[in-house]
């Protein structure tokens, strides 16, 4: 059975909430209605339901290798999934997911 959701308020906040909500992959949204209810007010009505869990395919993921070389020549290799590299001028920001099967969890 589908869920019904209604959001009402300041237009900017409602739109920001809408973007955040629609980025959630575990929900399917349909029948989205937008209604202006004032000069800067907006109402959104949704019908949504849960998507069945689908295990992500590793083949569909972007795999990158990060190689770090120390001053003494020692190298460390880190495998990252879905890596993003951003040149920030004086530094490079690298973000990705790394899974260590030998790591001890809390």
Protein model, in words:
The strands form 2 sheets. The chain has a 3-stranded antiparallel beta sheet with strand order 1-3-2. Strands 4-5-6 form a 3-stranded antiparallel beta sheet, with no helix packed on it. The radius of gyration is 22 Å and the shape is elongated. It is mostly beta strands and 106 residues long. Strand 2 and strand 3 (41-50) form a beta hairpin. The protein has 1 helix and 6 strands; from the N terminus they run βαβββββ. The mean pLDDT is 85. Helix content is 11%, strand content 51%.
Total strand segments: 6
Silhouette: elongated
Beta fraction of the residues?
A: over 45%
The H/E string reads EHEEEEE
Query: Which secondary-structure class do the elements indicate?
Result: mainly beta
Subunit arrangement of the protein: single chain
Question: What number is the mean pLDDT?
Answer: 85
Q: Tell me the strand order in the biggest sheet.
A: 1-3-2
Query: How far apart are the first and last residues' alpha carbons, in Å?
Result: 37 Å
**Helix content estimate:** 10-25%
Major beta sheet, specifics?
3 strands, antiparallel
Low-confidence stretches: none
Q: What is Rg?
A: 22 Å
Supply the number of helical segments. Answer: 1
